[in-house]
Specification:
globular, 8 helices, Pectate Lyase C-like, nine-stranded parallel sheet, Immunoglobulin-like, Jelly Rolls, disordered N terminus, single chain, mainly beta, 17-stranded parallel sheet
Length: about 725
Amino acid sequence: MKRIYLLLLMLAMVTSSFATNEITVTRKKGWLETAVLQWTPVEGATKYSVIYSGEGISGMADDMLIRSYSGYVRCDIPGLKAGSYTLTVRAWDDNGEEIAVSDPQVVTVKGQNREGFAFTDNVVPGGYNMDGTPKANAKIIYVTANNANTVTCEVSDGKNLSTYTGLANIISACGKDKTHTPLIVRVVGTVKNTDIEGLKDGNYLNFEGKNATDCSIENITLEGIGDDAALYGYGVCFKRTRGLEIKNLGIMLFGDDAVSLDTDNYHNWIHNCDFFYGKPGPDADQVKGDGSIDMKYRSTLTTISYNHFFDSGKVMGCGGATKEQDGNLLITFHHNWFDHCDSRCPRLNHTTAHIYNNYYDGNATYGIGCTEESNAFIEGNYFRNLQRPMMIAGQGTDYKYASDPNKGTFSGQPGGMSKAYNNKVENSSIELRLSYQTDDPQEFDAWKVESRGEKVPETVSAKKGGHIYDNFDTAEGMYASTPDAPEDVAGIVTEYAGRIDGGDIKWTFNNSVDDKSHVINEELKSAITSYVTSIVSIQGDVEKPGGNDDDDDPNKNPSGATKGGYVADLINDSQSGFSIVGATSNSKGTVTIDGTTYNTCVKMGSSASITFTIAEPMTLTLYFANSAGKRIKINEMPEISIPDNNIVTTTLPAAGEYVIKRTSGESYLFYIELTPLTTGIEMPHSEKFHYEGVFNLSGQRVGKDYRGLRIINGKKIIRQ
C-alpha cells in the first residue's frame, strides 16, 4: 500500500490530476519559516498529502504534520527559508486512490529574526541553519501524547549508533554524543507530564550534557507544530548545553521553572513560546508558579525573543548570588510581550543585557530591574501603563518609594547601571515613577542618551556599590542589530510573539483592572487548568491524543482514588486530591525512587497535616529522609515509627478520608504513593505491619527467603 501511495504522489507532482472532486482550502498563511494550510474534510478520504515547492525546495509534508480538527484539517510545514511557496493538497481513500485535489496555493514565508548574543561566534542554535532550513544530516522525530515513551531515534556514542526509545531516553543519550548530530524534536498536540516517563524531579524534560567541554549537549531544537503544541505539567531544564533552541510551544502548569538554564549553558535561543501559570509554590510570591525562565551559573550568550508571557509573576531571573558563580552573563531580550506580568522582565544580577523592542503591557510591579554588577542597554521598548518601567537597585525609584530604603525592591542588593535610548513610555491611568539623570543627577533609574552610540561617562556609577557601566553596546565586537521604531513595537510584538496565530488560548486582559493587579486571574487559571487539546486525530499517530479528561488521566486509578506522587507536585494542586499543610524544604536530604531523585520535602512539624480521600482500600507508602525513629499517626490507627530505611508502608483498610500527622519529632516527607490492594488480605493494625515486610497468603510474616507465592507491599510476588 505504501508503494501505491508513493507512486501516485510522484505522478501527481509531474502530471495533472484526474481527481473528480476539489478540496476546498479555507486558509493559507506564511509565517516565520513555516507554511500553513487548512481545508475542509473530504468524504471518503483516509489520508491527505501536501506537496510543496519553492525557493529551490520541494517535498511532501510528513504525515505527523497533518492534523484533523472538528470541521477542518490543518498542515503546518516548518523548516522553510523566506520566500514564496506553492502548496497542493491531495486526498486518498482506503485503496490508495486519489479522490480529490486542491488548486495550487501560494504563500509567502517570512524569515526569523536571528539577532542577539546567542548567535555570536558564528553559532546558529538548534537543528536549523541560519536561513531556517534543517542542518545537514539533522534527524527529525515527532512526539505526541501517544508515542512520547515509544518514539525511537538513533544516537551515536562517538563510535556506534544505537537506537533509543522514549523522548527522555533519546535526549539523555544525546548528552553523551560527541558527534553532536543535529536533532529536531517536533511536539504535536499536548504532551502532559503524565504522558512522558523520565522527567527530572517530575518537573523537567532534562537536556544535560555529560560534561561542559566535548560532551555538552548541542544542536537540538525542541519545537511545537501549529498553534496548539504544549507541554502541560512540566518544563525544560538545560545543563551543560550549547546551541539549543526552544520555539513555538505553550508551557503551562509547570512544577518549578518553565525553562531553567541551570549550569554551563552557552548560545541558546528561546523564542516564540507562550508562557502561562505554573503550579503554585510554597512561598507567597509563587502563587503563579516560580519563574518562567531562570538563568544562572554561567548560563550565558542567550537570546530570549518573541515570547508571550501571560500574567507571569516572577518572569525572568538572571544570575546567581555571586559573580564567582556566574561570571558575567550575556543575554539579549527582544520583541517579547510582557502581558500584564508582575515583575522581573527581566531582573539582572551579574548580567550584561541588551533589552530592546519589548512590549511592556500593564506590568503591575516593575519592568526591568538592574542589580549587582549588571549592565543594561534599554533600547526602543514600549512601556504601556507601568508605574515603574525600569529601576536600579538602591537608588532612584527603588530608593525614593521603598518602605525600607535599605532593602527596597531588591532585598538591599547593590545597583547595576543602565543606559536608556529611544524608549516609548505611555501612562494613561497610573502614576509614572521614572527618573533619568536629566531629572535627578543622583537618584536616577537609567542614564538617558540622545543617540544610540553615545556612551555613559566613566565617572557615573551606581549609588550603592559603585558599579560603572561598561558600554558593551558600543564596544568593538558587539553584534549587529536593527531595532524597530518604538511606536511600531506593540503592533509587531502582538502579531508575532508567542506561538503561531497567537496560540490556541486567546486571552484579553481587562486593562482597567489588570494593569494594577498582582493577584492571579482566576478565569485565566481556570482556562489553563481545564485546557484540553482540540485535535481529533494526527495522521500517522496510532490513537486519538488524550486530553485532560479524568477517564484518560493516568494520575487517576480506575476506582477514582488518588495515586499520589512527589510532594512538591501535590502541594496546592487542586487536581491531585491532596491537601498539604506545612512548610517545604530542599535542604533535608533526598529520596531516590525508580532512578529519579527528589530534593523537596514537606516538614512534618507540629502543625503539619496531609489530608486525602480514597474510594477503596489501598496500600500507602511514604518516603522520608533523615527521619528514622520519628513517629506519625494516621486517623485513629496506632502510631507508626519511621524505620531505619525511612520508608513507611501501611494498609488503609476502607474507603474514606485519611489525615496524616506527626506525633513525635519533625520528619521530612518527600513522596506519597497509593496503590489499590490486590491480594484481598486485610493486614492487622499492629505496628509491626506498618512498614515493609514479607507475608504469605494467610497474612503471616515470613522470611525474605520464603519460596513460593508471597506478598510484599501489598503485591503478589513469586520466588522460585
